[in-house]
Design goal:
Strand content: 25-35%
Helix content: 25-40%
Order of helices and strands: HEHEE
Oligomer: single chain
Structural class: alpha+beta
Shape: globular
Number of helices: 2
Largest sheet: 3 strands, antiparallel
Number of strands: 3
Length: 109
């Protein structure tokens, strides 16, 4: 099971690096290094009419934060070092699918 998860993670990271990745959004500050809980990934859709970088960045953050809050329900968390890549296009609905990955950090209460 660990081998399959490792292979899947490597493939996702390679896919993110090869496709149109944003680089870093909401970069991790040096003071937050000790508060990293792990990484999280999510997929989300953006309507083709609203495909601005700021909209995609915001939606990536919202989607990742929702996943992190589900995984760490009793902890106040935020997401840093967000990267996203464009996936499939749904021509019928003019929607683009994106995959995002980021680091989950613990915030002080």
């Amino acid at each position: 099971m660990k081998t399959k998860l490792g292979i899947f993670t490597v493939l996702v990271l390679i896919g993110l690096l090869i496709s149109c990745v944003t680089g870093e959004y909401m970069s991790l500050r040096p003071s937050e290094q000790g508060d990293i809980l792990g990484t999280i990934q999510s997929t989300f859709n953006v309507n083709g009419a609203y495909r601005y970088r700021s909209t995609i960045n915001r939606q990536a953050h919202i989607s990742l934060l929702a996943e992190a809050q589900n995984r760490y329900p009793d902890t106040v968390v935020d997401i840093r070092d967000i990267s996203w890549a464009m996936g499939q296009f749904d021509a019928a609905n003019n929607n683009y699918e994106y995959s995002a990955i980021g680091k989950v950090i613990r915030l002080p209460k």
